[in-house]
Amino acid sequence: MLAFAANSLLNRAALSGGGIDAVSFGTLRLLAGAAMLTVLALLLRGGLRFGGRGRLAGVIGLVLYIYGFSAAYSGLEAGLGALLLFGMVQVTMFAGSLLGGEVVPARRWTGAALAFAGLLWLLWPGGAAPLSLWHAGAMALAGIGWGIYSLAGRGAQDALMSASATMILAAAVGVALQLAGPGLPVRVSPGALGLAVISGAVTSGLGYALWYSVLPRIPGSVAAVAQLTVPVLAMAGGMVLLGEALTLRFVLAALLVLGGVALSLRPPRPAGR
Question: 247 lies in which domain range?
């Protein structure tokens, strides 16, 4: 979750400076992640294997997420975008888990509802800015894409190999989309390029490999609820690293989010107690 929150900060820092456009940032992020995971797979596994269970779904999900996210934030408020993103992640992953036969206990539903209520309180935009349905739809697709990517990772037998193959194939699709659309970026500042490489190689490449190693060990609904901590961690990081203000609203909403997540993750009591 810290890696995912760091991705949000790196995206904001790179795009706010105007040194790169959102689509090119996403493509460079995919390429840097693919390069990092290729090196690791060759060193630790001795090669690459591109087939496997859920590969196509994972690639489609990752591409939808990367470019839907980039497109949405060009015309959507950050708070409302995060709500749409994580709301769709919850819907997609809970639906996928239920269809896969998972039994979700009542306390997890309750915890998820409390945590999302905390996010609503924290992130709901205060102004009356008109909502762009196109950008909102792009963010909804990004949330569905990330949910699909995460559900596909639950079937990974080798987390590093699966994450590497998915990232490499998604990067190839991304380059094709870049060339077919806006083309290669005309101008990329050194700072934005560095942030894209860090976001791709470290917080995406290594973070996604770690995520794929965790997903087969936990229920899909647990993975969904745990991700509600990401906006809170990103905002806390913005306060520490970007000088954003700490408010009482943030503290209370963060406690509600973290409390709901803790309730969802609490193990059931042993029988007889």
Answer: 2-265
